[in-house]
Amino acid sequence: MTEITIKTSETTEKTEKTTGITLVEAITQALAYELAHDPDVIVLGEDVGVNGGVFRATQGLQARFGEERVRDTPLAENMIAGVCVGLGAMGMKPVAEIQFMGFMYSCVDQIISHASRLRNRTRGRLSCPMVIRAPYGAGIHSPEHHSESTEAIFAHIPGLRVVIPSTPLRAYGLLLASIRDPDPVIFLEPTRMYRLGKQIVPDNGEALPIDVCFISREGNDVTLVSWGAMMHETLKAAEILAESGIEAEVIDVATIKPLDMETILKSVEKTGRCVIVHEATKTCGVGAEIAAQIAEKGLTSLLAPIQRVAAFDVIVPLYRLEDYYLPSVERIVQSVLAVMEYK
Amino acid sequence: MTSQISHTQKSIIQFEIGYTQFLDPMGKIVQNLPEFTRDSEHLKILYRFLVRTRVFDTKAIALQRTGKLGTYPSTLGQEAIGVGIGSAMQSNDVLCPYYREYGAQFWRGVKMSEILLYWGGDERGSDFSDPRVKEDFPLCVPIGSQTLHAVGVATALKLRKQARVTVTTVGDGGTSRGDFYEAVNLAGAWQLPIVFVINNNQWAISLPRAKQTHAETLAQKGIAGGIFSEQVDGNDIIAVRYAVEEAIKRARSGLGPSVIEALSYRMSDHTTADDARRYRDAAEIEKYKALDPIKRFYQYLVDQNIWDKTKEEALQESVTKEVADAVYEYEHTSPLEPTAMFDFLYAKLPDALHREREEAAQLQRITTRD
Ligand SMILES: [Mg+2]
Q1: Of B54, B164, B266, B296, which residue is the catalytic one?
Q2: Whole-number Å distance between alpha carbons of B225 and B218
């Protein structure tokens, strides 16, 4: 079908030689900035203090801001979420870390039953300006329960925001925006991107807009929609496609709840073709919502059926099979070629 | 040859749970009364709030039975716990209640019409209008989860070095939940200014206290968190008021959290949607009628010459009028626009929702319901 040679292995990826910082360092930089500039901000979670977090995202923060504002909590994720509701209602801005997304499920009651609805149920009298950060996704050979990409669970919930950065620059700007946002934000950090590549991220305290997509690459032939770690594969696929003259527009959704469909629809109107790429399993993934909205609002601009490249509908395997589970550059390229050849 | 093994080589820790009561079920004094009981005017106010809560409760059930209110959980028989809590708190303390603590909420400034509005299906019922309760949490339905909010509130108070205290209440059923254990654990670990009051009404819908836990008391669950824990007679307003006030004083002066298990009894069904006859012997209710908190306090006040029949009649009349006014206010609250569903979802409605809100605005108004 295709004569394009595909280099999929991550080991061939050359890390940019810059004096920049990694995504996880950008997270630390944003937390430090906000702790320094807003006395209401506190950081809490398991091992976030002297240990600096399991991924070192809070490294050095306790030494700089003290044990009161950078707090180690006992080991109970639901408790962390519930305490954030109380802190938020009192006007604090808690930024909690859950060590892995796979450990967030015990927080779901507090997030869904309380954090997401406190503003609504009190008609704005009380609110929850809180952020729950969690590393998420597969691809780093983690143990069981450490590779989940179940963002759709939270994207389903009214009253929440779900924000997912894909680069150090976006991690810094979007985390600042999330902390400053007056409503609860689930902030999911792609573990696979934590130390993959660096960018120069000025520590200027400038937030990026949330609730909007970013166009990471412009093109006229096909729209690729993705977020988080899959942006890496998606952009790589776009480069490969460009070699054979297919110019893909790549959209980083970044805020998957609420969705900025306007940007996506505008792009699809231009290209007439859309492939959605996500690491989460396909059924009821956020890609299904994006595809449905394109079908509802942009059907006439489509020249080919919308395609989704997602994880298979299986439980995240232990790491020996995770590279098969994760959508590959090759699967993205093949899917785009099929869309391009559709008559 | 086996040597003798001592199963308990030495005792590491022992605990005890105290129990406090001042008035027996006949209203007789069983021990020296606390200082606040010398102020007879204050005792009258306590009594007034007990009666207010009961008259309100009776009316709410009547409203539900006549189709004018949604499902309602009654507080019948447990009024002393709520009023005891409310009267022990300072105005700027924060209450995170479960869903039967109307007595505490009324004392603090929540309006009767607001509670009716909430159970009448209107979110505005949790938008308390009295500035004294602007930071109080609305009542909490999912069971036990409010105890964690209270811990968060207490953390904020401690961080900001404010001499304020959080009080949270939880049912006996709620103490089986992880949220409660987690809250008690963190309150102990962080020595937070918080008081947990367990409203033990002996039933978690159909599950009796004996089947909820093998622990002898619910109070001792606080011991595991290293917290001062005790039991009080929850049908003795003086005992509840005293214990909560002492616990609040300790919390305010930095001496850490407390757990108070207030023993009472759910004289009503779980809610108006429940029929306790399916699982509870009617004779049991008869037994507990003798322990009624209001009857008991009435008797005490009469014995002290603080109260009499004439005063009682006047009180009943004034409280009935007050409740009727609240019902009038409830029934004459302006209807909600369908767009109200959108208006407090976020601080600012995201662009993605404008179209849906517009659609809701165009919906044909439903004026009657079959
Ligand atoms: Mg109960």
Answers
A1: B266
A2: 13
